[in-house]
Design goal:
about 775 residues; alpha+beta; six-stranded antiparallel β-sheet; six-stranded mixed β-sheet; 17 strands; Helix-turn-helix domain-containing protein; CdaR_GGDEF; Homeodomain-like_sf
Length: about 775
């Protein structure tokens, strides 16, 4: 059709267009050729310049990074060669020598504090299966939470290396492992593990390399493990020994150089590398596509030059076509002639045919628009009905005019049915529209089956709303309750069959006129609230006498609330469940939606108050958003299941975590108190008062956390202090005994029992 209306103009302007495009091609082709040659030469020159620039940048980055890593490696070597570490493999009593273990721990803590990047230091003795950690103290190998890290580190096939350990990498740590002893034995007897916070080390790296969108910096350990990648943060710790680029670099004997490769998209990439004496490889990758992007201005100049000539050509073509022939003006002139003369002029058959084609084309467009409106009309009608039902449109005049325009029966007897899935809290928001669409289609099909008329639309959230009326004149518009009930039951069955969903149905009262349907909708929502205490049927009809049937008196089951909280505190889960079910039976008997919800709110508040009384922060409790979770449950059964399956386990986890943390802190405080007051007569009762615990509980807690009793620990600390004074000071035995809180006689007895010799013999042997 369009070809018929415009075909004559094409023949009359072809000559002019050919001349215009010939001039356009003669100018644009040379511009494109010259620009392309200049672009290629510029890319080659820039590539050579960037090679030199970024090799210097890589060397600077390598030097600064090696300084940081070497500091940690040298500190690990110093500690590994220390006399304490060497002696630990020669002491037969190392496993029970807590004082010696404490000295090693103190040395590791000092080194950790001196070097801020260090997160944790671990000493592992394979002979005794003992672990000394700056975070956890002395731990037996089988009791250590991160034992997989020890096993993985101890399997290292070289003396020392940086690695990402299984558990450590999950905590955001990178580790330097040094097997012990450093020299003298081919069989590893232990290991020193230095954990460094990956984020801290990455921040140190980022200070020294050029942060750019088109450069990639990588650090690869000699074992093939990637320590750092400025692009792929999630790829730290990957084994890249099989990476083609790394394999190619490993085979090169030179310590630095440039190789070529391709990225995942097949684009050429320059890889600049530099090796250290320990075969650690630093790689900088620069895509040639990125180099080309820096010269993109040349492309833009070529592009805009071509565009300018193209626009000039189009403008000239349009002016010529407009000047030579204008079909719109010819059509207007011919129309005026037909109106003025009231007949068709001779020789104007072509113009008449032209006008006929125009009118025929307009008629086709009008029919197409009409079909489109008929397709759109049901959706517009449903959207309008949904707004009226929810009370968003309340103006009576507007409702009447819209009903007339959309062919809606205004004065029928209407009732509103609301269908909503059970356990709606399990649905994701993106699933709402698809679920309501499927339910709406099922309801539309069933309306026809039960000879009912109406409109189905989506409500708020997962609600599907049906506005139903009976257009059977013999029934005077009244909806048969039995037929309506069969329709609701069949809806539940079909949704269960097709979508595997259980749904509940709320039915409002009948009202005359569309304007009253919002009241029926509110009644249907109230009918759905009956689910809280009525479980016999998924279909609930609004009852005007429901409020009158409520119990006149309701007593909140305070005794059951106290019983539930008490069982929770004692950890008796089965008794807690039974008490909760009794609580649910009592509040359900009130047959009041508001009373039931308020009762559960009060119970939840009591449980939260019980947690808070145990010293747990209210902010930590409330961030779980428990009240909103409770609100999303719509039936009594859903609420009881939420308390049992979600709240009670979470309660136990919060309390247990708080108790474990408090016990560990208390033991550390006692440990420090004993060391600071070694010359005093320190008692278990005094320390228990210090941390606010009973002596018996503190004694059990101290043994559980340290592995020895409180009395043995105090005695060991005093003996260690006496040893130190005997070695380093020229004090006599009486003065030393007074310094550690013993009499001379008691010191000699206790010292000989623990060390196997008298204080004098010990001094003579060690000085």
């Amino acid at each position: 059709m369009r070809h018929k209306l415009t075909g004559s103009s094409k023949n009359r302007t072809a000559y002019f267009r050919r001349i215009i495009w010939l001039v356009f091609l003669c100018v644009c082709v040379p511009v494109v050729l010259i620009g392309s040659i200049y672009y290629k030469l510029s890319v080659s020159h820039l590539t050579d310049e960037l090679k030199s620039q970024y090799m210097t940048s890589l060397t600077s980055f390598m030097d600064s990074t090696e300084d940081r890593l070497a500091t940690i490696e040298y500190d690990s070597l110093q500690f590994s060669n220390s006399s304490m570490v060497r002696d630990s493999f020669l002491r037969e009593s190392f496993k029970e020598d807590y004082v010696f273990q404490g000295d090693i721990l103190d040395s590791m803590l000092t080194r950790k504090n001196v070097h801020p990047p260090i997160q944790e230091m671990i000493y592992y003795n394979d002979e005794f299966k003992m672990i000394l950690s700056t975070d956890y103290g002395s731990v037996k190998g089988e009791h250590y939470a991160y034992n997989d890290d020890i096993i993985h580190a101890f399997s290292l096939d070289k003396q020392a290396s940086w690695m990402y350990l299984p558990d450590g990498s999950g905590r955001g740590l990178i580790s330097f492992i040094r097997l012990l002893p450093v020299v003298g034995s081919t069989q590893a007897q232990g290991a020193i593990i230095t954990h460094v916070k990956e984020e801290t080390l990455t921040q140190e790296f980022q200070k020294h390399y050029e942060n750019s969108d088109y450069l990639t910096y990588r650090i690869v350990e000699s074992s093939g493990v990637e320590l750092f990648n400025s692009r792929q943060v999630d790829g730290y710790g990957m084994d890249v020994s099989s990476d083609p680029i790394y394999e190619q670099i490993s085979k090169i004997e030179s310590n630095s150089g440039i190789i070529y490769g391709e990225d995942v998209n097949g684009k050429a990439v320059l890889h600049l590398f530099s090796k250290t004496l320990l075969d650690r490889v630093y790689i900088t990758s620069l895509s040639e596509v990125t180099i080309a992007e820096q010269l993109g201005w040349i492309k833009f100049v070529i592009f805009y030059t071509v565009i300018i000539f193209l626009i000039v050509g189009l403008i000239l073509s349009y002016i010529c076509s407009r000047f030579v022939y204008n079909p719109v003006e010819r059509l207007i002139q011919q129309g005026k002639k037909l109106v003025e003369k009231q007949h068709i002029p001779e020789g104007s058959s072509n113009e008449f045919e032209y006008i006929t084609e125009c009118l025929h084309y307009m008629h086709e467009q009008a029919e197409s628009l009409n079909k489109h409106l008929k397709v759109m009309e049901p959706n517009i009608r449903e959207q309008f009905i949904g707004k009226v039902i929810k009370g968003e449109i309340w103006d009576r005049d507007r409702i009447q005019s819209e009903c007339k325009a959309l062919q809606i029966e205004e004065n029928q007897l209407y009732t509103v049915i609301v269908v909503t899935p059970e356990k709606a809290y399990k649905f994701l928001p993106e699933e709402w529209s698809l679920t309501t669409f499927a339910i709406a289609n099922i309801m539309k099909e069933l309306l026809q089956k039960y000879r009912l008329s109406g409109y189905v639309s989506s409500g708020d959230g997962l609600e599907t709303i049906a506005l139903v009326y009976n257009n059977d004149q013999r029934a005077n518009g009244v909806i048969n309750r039995e037929r309506l009930n069969r329709f609701a039951e069949h809806t539940c069955e079909e949704v269960k069959k097709c979508l595997s969903l259980d749904v509940s149905v709320g039915v409002g009262s009948e009202y005359s006129g569309v304007t009253k349907t919002s009241e029926s909708y509110q009644e249907a929502l109230l009918a759905l609230q009956y689910r809280m205490y009525k479980t016999s049927s998924p279909i609930n009809y609004y009852d005007h006498n429901e409020n009158a049937k409520k119990q006149t008196m309701f007593f909140y089951p305070r005794d059951l609330e106290i019983e539930i909280v008490d069982y929770l505190n004692k950890g008796e889960r089965e008794q807690t469940k039974q008490s909760l079910k009794k609580f649910a039976d009592v509040v359900r008997a009130s047959e009041s939606y508001n009373l039931i919800y308020q009762s559960y709110h009060v119970l939840l508040s009591s449980i939260i108050r019980s947690i808070e009384q145990q010293g747990i922060s209210l902010l930590e409790i409330m961030e779980n958003n428990w009240f909103d979770q409770l609100k999303s449950r719509k039936t009594s059964e859903e609420i009881v299941d939420w308390f049992i399956e979600v709240l009670f386990p979470l309660y136990d986890d919060i309390v247990e975590e708080s108790q474990n943390l408090g016990g560990r802190l208390a033991v550390q405080k006692v440990w420090q108190h004993v060391k600071e007051n070694i010359g005093m007569n320190i008692s278990l009762t005094e320390c228990a008062e210090l941390v606010g615990m009973s002596p018996s509980y503190l004694s059990r807690l101290f043994r559980r956390e340290t592995g020895i009793s409180f009395v043995d620990y105090v005695k060991q600390c005093k003996i260690d202090e006496a040893k130190k004074l005997l070695k380093e000071k020229d004090m006599n035995i009486i003065q030393i005994a007074q310094r550690v809180g013993y009499s001379e006689r008691n010191l000699s007895r206790v010292f000989k029992s623990a060390v196997g010799m008298s204080p004098g013999q010990f001094r003579a042997e060690h000085r």
